[in-house]
Design brief:
By secondary structure, this protein is an alpha+beta fold. About 40% of the residues lie in helices and about 25% in strands. It has one domain. The protein is built from four helices and five strands. It has a five-stranded antiparallel β-sheet with strand order 1-2-3-4-5, covered by helices on one side. The protein is globular and about 55 Å long.
């Protein structure tokens, strides 16, 4: 028997997380795995966005973890939105924009 979480259409949830990420409201952080980024929300939920690079095509997934680190939901749909979320989370966690800005300043001084 499937649980409600297994049948949940995560589109609304992914949309909300993507919007908050775009607005800079979620602080994504690196993990030991370079294909996984996390953000804490409300002190009792951790968002984990990951990308499986083991096959020819990348597949992104979103997991929700409770305050004990237990996975309560995993979704790999909608695929295009999760790919964008992974890219944005990575960009935020690795501070890509700031690093590029600093590099541009350094290059202009050469």
């Amino acid at each position: 028997m499937s649980s409600y979480a297994d049948q949940l259409d995560a589109t609304g949830l992914v949309t909300a997380i993507l919007e908050k990420t775009r607005a800079g409201k979620l602080k994504w952080e690196e993990t030991a795995d370079e294909e996984v980024f996390i953000a804490s929300v409300g002190g009792n939920t951790t968002l984990k966005v990951s990308r499986d690079a083991s096959s020819r095509y990348y597949q992104s997934a979103l997991s929700l973890l409770d305050e004990n680190g237990k996975v309560i939901l995993v979704s790999s749909e909608p695929e295009s939105m999760l790919d964008e979320l992974f890219t944005l989370a990575r960009r935020i966690a690795l501070k890509v924009d700031e690093r590029v800005d600093r590099l541009m300043e350094t290059l202009q001084k050469l």
